[in-house]
Backbone:
């Protein structure tokens, strides 16, 4: 089994040894991994993502997974004949659609991720924002063509209660959170559909995460869309804020979420191509791919270096435990 895991990733995955130094430097760091539906295009990628999450855990980091599932929701709604168009990158969500979104995210996508991670040991625990009141949401209004749009039961995160997440992390588990949230005023028992980037950013901010890695289906953030050159290697929060008004589609809420995470104190955010096996590990290597967005001035670090260490609440190296290199190499 171990040999099989090694063989499967060695040709296409990153060189683990080159990532070890980066992983070592991040012992004890809380890292939120946002896995988007568009990056979950095949079984091998999902397995690679699960292995990477477990590797981070073995290396003494504290990974938290927040997942989306836009394409999976699309496919399900098509199958049952429900229409739910997007406005400004967010799905217009009737109460009926909200129930289906919850079923697909919590009942299908999350269960699969939990299973893939737990193939390597009893690490993953699935939850939604409903569990232990982890998330609470208020209605979010959309904007399209300069006009305010009623998105129905789409929520923005009003509160994150970190107690359950912190307890799971302290117990060495990997929380896998679906982006569903009850109403902050507990008004009618209904749930809100929260964009998964928004949920990941709120969770990263509330946990005081060192970094937020957003896995998506493009190599990074492009200055113009469709792209006319390579993605932006590095920019700072102010630079991202200046780009926001021109961004469209799914990148609009994603970039806004990145900015919110940085402003909440997350050390850095990376947008990574989740279609590349080993994307998460590569983020800790010497030639980290994707777009790096840092809180302070962008000139602070090497554009191609690994994930920055020492966020506002990194927890210190001591809390991470020793790096279990044997387990790391076995899992690679
Ligand atoms: N400037 C841009 N840079 C990168 N992607 C962009 C940009 N503008 C729009 N996009 C679109 O945003 C998409 C990513 O957002 P989204 O579909 O929500 O991804 P995910 O499901 O991974 O969260 C890309 O596939 C691309 O089509
Ligand atoms: C409000 C809103 O748009 N919610 C998203 C939730 C899932 C999601 O965000 O999935 P990705 O990360 O794969 O895009 C939706 O219904 O598709």
Residues:
């Amino acid at each position: 089994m171990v040999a099989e895991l090694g063989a499967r990733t060695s040709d296409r995955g990153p060189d683990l040894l080159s990532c070890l130094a980066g992983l070592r430097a991040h012992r004890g760091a809380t890292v939120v991994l946002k896995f988007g539906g568009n990056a979950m295009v095949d079984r091998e990628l999902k397995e690679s993502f699960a292995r990477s999450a477990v590797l981070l855990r073995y290396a003494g980091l504290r990974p938290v997974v927040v997942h989306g599932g836009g394409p999976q929701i699309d496919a399900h709604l098509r199958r049952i004949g429900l229409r739910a168009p997007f406005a400004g990158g967010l799905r217009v969500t009737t109460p009926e659609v909200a129930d289906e979104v919850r079923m697909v995210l919590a009942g299908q996508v999350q269960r699969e991720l939990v299973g893939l991670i737990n193939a390597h040991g009893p690490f993953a625990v699935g939850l939604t924002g409903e569990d232990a009141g982890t998330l609470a949401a208020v209605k979010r209004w959309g904007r399209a063509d300069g006009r305010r749009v009623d998105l129905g039961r789409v929520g923005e995160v009003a509160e994150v209660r970190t107690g359950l997440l912190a307890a799971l992390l302290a117990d060495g588990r990997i929380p896998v959170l679906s982006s569903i949230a009850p109403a902050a005023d507990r008004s009618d028992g209904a749930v809100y559909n929260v964009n998964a980037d928004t949920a990941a950013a709120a969770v990263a901010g509330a946990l005081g995460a060192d970094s937020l890695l957003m896995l998506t289906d493009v190599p990074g953030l492009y200055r113009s869309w469709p792209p006319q050159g390579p993605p932006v290697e590095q920019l700072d929060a102010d630079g991202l804020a200046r780009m926001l008004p021109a961004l469209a589609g799914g990148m609009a809420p994603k970039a806004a979420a990145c900015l919110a995470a940085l402003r909440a104190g997350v050390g850095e955010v990376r947008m990574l191509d989740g279609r590349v096996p080993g994307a998460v590990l590569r983020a800790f290597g010497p030639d980290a791919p994707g777009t790096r967005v840092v809180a302070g001035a962008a000139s602070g670090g090497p554009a191609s270096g690994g994930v920055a260490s020492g966020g506002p609440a990194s927890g210190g190296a001591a809390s991470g435990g020793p790096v279990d290199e044997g387990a790391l190499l076995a899992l690679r």
